[in-house]
Write a structure and sequence with these properties.
The protein has one helix spanning 2-40. It is mostly helical. The longest helix has 39 residues, at 2-40.
Length: 43
């Protein structure tokens, strides 16, 4: 029974970490797009 809850908790932690990584990736992409536009000579 404890093992079941431990696995469930680990799954929730994995989901949270994946969501955080996804947010970080989106923000990095937005930053890259902004900087690329600046290099091209304006937005």
């Amino acid at each position: 029974m404890i093992k079941y809850y431990q696995e469930l908790l680990n799954e929730c932690i994995d989901l949270f970490e994946n969501k955080q990584l996804y947010k970080d990736m989106l923000s990095t992409l937005a930053t890259m797009k902004y900087k690329l536009n600046q290099l091209k000579g304006g937005i």
